[in-house]
Amino acid sequence: MTFLAELQELVECQSPTEDLEACTRVISLAAEIVNRNLPIPAEERIENGRPILWWGSQNPKIVLLTHLDTVWPTDSYLPLWKVDGDKIYGPGTFDMKAGFLQALYALKNIEGADKSVALIATTDEEVGSQTSRALIERVSKGASAVLVFEASLNGKVKTGRKGTSMYQIKVHGRASHAGLDPEKGINATVEIANVVLKMTALENKEFGTTVVPTTLHSGTVTNTVPALAVLDIDSRSFTMAELQRIDAAIKGLVPVHPEARIEVTGGINRPPLELSSTQDLYEKLEAVAEKIGMAPIGNAAVGGASDGNLAAATGVAVLDGLGAVGDGAHAPHEHILASSIPARIQLTESFIKELIRD
Question: Which residues, 6 or more positions from 283, have their beta carbon under 8 angstroms from its beta carbon?
Fold first, then answer.
């Protein structure tokens, strides 16, 4: 079968992260596709209750890290497969089923790759990789390079990603009648409003640090002083020091009213992917591109996190964004450019060969 035919199979095998049966099906299909293309069979495994695919070395020098879950609930992106000239639309085309296939196809002409390379596909990346995190950290610690096949940014690889933190802040007040005796209550809405202002004041544009209040719930009925308010916070930064600063500030919150109580849950979810982790591999990639006659690839730093963040935290060299060229991650226009696929496969194949020789 051709690359596009196998990509269509993967895309039409819908795999929203929350649907465990669907994710099991897509891993089984991915293993079947691997087995069509490579002489060494893939393994279907269960990692902390979720399916993953593993092909190749059990102690790899080079890890090709992918995921096959998507953000799209079943039948929420229709039609599932559409070709419009050079653009191929479908749920997961860009993020990141084409990236998985590109990594697989790059291995087809590398003899003995299974002795030093592992291709891994997980199914919980879109919700923070809670079940696959330990696996990613374990395999990264023993490797010399981790290549992440998330989609590229206009063809550029990603040499920086923000780290992420998620928090929920609850303010416990005291209810009372809003008309008869509001002074006897402790207004959780007023308290949470002060918290919101404190959160927005924590941002730091110099380091790309954002602290964003998102969902907010307070009170029960209109004539009662609210006794409980709940606020969710999304915080991101390109540096670990900034994430730690925000973490300390949030966990050190003090209420204005002395009898109110603040409860904080959550914390740092993914550390940043910093240039110190990616620079060496990026320079090698550009040298490989020049050697095979390609134009410079380019690099970028982006706000979204990936499993590359988790790998980099172990100290291994990481390069992200080696996947598909296209646009629309998590958006209704998600698509890839078919014309870009052969060059990306050739680049990845040459890059892996160079890393094996090192």
Answer: none
Res 304: pLDDT: 86
Q: What is the pLDDT of residue 66?
A: 98
SS3 (DSSP) at 63: strand
Dig out the tokens for 243 from the structure: 């994430």
pLDDT score recorded for residue 352: 98
pLDDT computed for residue 18 by the predictor: 96
Structural domain boundaries, residue 300:
3-162+272-357
Q: Using CA atoms, how far apart are residues 69 and 266, in angstroms rounded to an integer? A: 24
Name the DSSP letter for residue 156.
B
Q: 91-124 in b/e burial notation, b at 16+ Cβ within 10 A?
A: bbbbbbbbbbbbbbbbbeebeebbebbbbbbbbb
Among residues 114, 83, 121, 81, which one has the least CA distance to residue 99? 121
Residues 6+ apart with CB under 8 A from 315: 141
Give, to the nearest 10 degrees, the angle between helix 98-107 and helix 20-37: 30
Q: What is the mean pLDDT of each run of 10 residues along the chain (358 residues)?
A: 97 98 98 97 97 98 98 97 97 98 97 97 94 97 97 95 96 96 96 98 95 97 97 95 97 97 96 94 98 97 93 97 96 97 98 96
Mode of pairing for the β-strands spanning 299-302 and 62-67: unpaired
* Contact predicate 240/163, CB 8 Å: yes
Q: How many domains does the chain have?
A: 2
Give yes or no: residues 85 and 55 share one domain: yes
Residue 137, CA atoms < 13 Å, CB-side half-sphere: 11
- Size of the chain in residues: 358
Q: CATH no. for residue 178?
A: 3.30.70.360
